[in-house]
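Following up on my earlier message about 3-isopropylmalic acid. Here are the inputs again, as you asked, copied directly from the submission form:
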Amino acid sequence: MNYKIALIRGDGIGPEVVGEAVKVLNTVGEVCGHTFAYTEVLLGGCATDAVGKSYPDGTAETCRACDAVLLGAVGGPKWGSDKPAEQRPETALLAIRKDLGLYANLRPAVLRPAMAEACPLKKETAERGIDLMMVRELTGGIYFGQREKYETEDRGMEAADRMAYSEKEIERIGRRAFELARLRRSKVSSVDKANVLETSRLWRSVMHRLAEEYPDVSYEDVLVDNCAMQLVRDPGQFDVVVTENMFGDILSDEASMVTGSIGLLPSASIGDAAPGLYEPIHGSAPDIAGQNKANPIATILSVAMMFRYSFHLAAEADLVEQAVDSVLAGGWRTPDIAKAGETAIGTVKMGDLICEKIRELHK
Ligand code: IPM
Ligand code: MG
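Thanks, got it. Here's what our run produced:
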């Protein structure tokens, strides 16, 4: 098969990690008999520099003509919160998610076997293993509600951000979570703040309705503050965690940290129609950009998610994940995951080793 992939290299370390992921795509293509055609798409701070805005006209159309989108990272201090919205990389990221209808953000937090000692939690906790899937609602809630800033008579400036959720939005993300749980360990933990927020009470009532439709999946409500605590106390208890946009933003960073390296974690953003968007969880790390120091594994594992969720190529997805695990088991480390005294390898070498391993495993 021939697949069309939009490449958003982005800012900071984005271009370097996407470069390695493309090498992996081509290697898998070669050994498994697929071809990939790439379309370069400009988005983020680099787009602001080139054309004056972070989300150039026609971006969504170009992406829609592809089967999947691979994104490196966007952002950097050069395009900070003091800049107008249309120049900020974050604006572009939110806009493309909305325009492509990518309402479900899947963020697996997995403690890979070779990395068990990188887990910052107690040894007994790490030994129980961590393998959870955070399902974050991505196109609704407070990140997309009306924003206001206005002068008051006696309290100075005031600002407000509206948080709204419809039953329809809640139901479609909820269904995703239950369907995913069926393919995993059949447990859904729904995170909300129903003791305070009206949106959370609606969220909870829709989730309860769905839970009845999926009697084979075990279900629990977890308050967001408790969830934040449970993630560091005993993350092994979670299978699928489903939550609204802002809670998911925060909790997914926390979940990634308990696995020991944010440089290893991929993500998928999907909707009801192609293309899905795949990107590492980490940011653009401008401090190490262009130095061949970035860990390309999160982006490479995002390619595995692309195989699994957009192309339905499960064997190819497994192949990439096995290659990554095997290179890590061989002791190879980029600087972010190397322990004191261990020699680290660069971005390109890590990509090469994974490609080599893919060829070897496929024989
Ligand atoms: C993320 C990021 C983005 C988000 C920002 C950059 C808009 O933090 O992907 O988690 O909050 O969605
Ligand atoms: Mg975030």
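One observation from looking it over: The first strand starts at residue 2 and ends at 10. Hope that helps, and feel free to reply on this thread.
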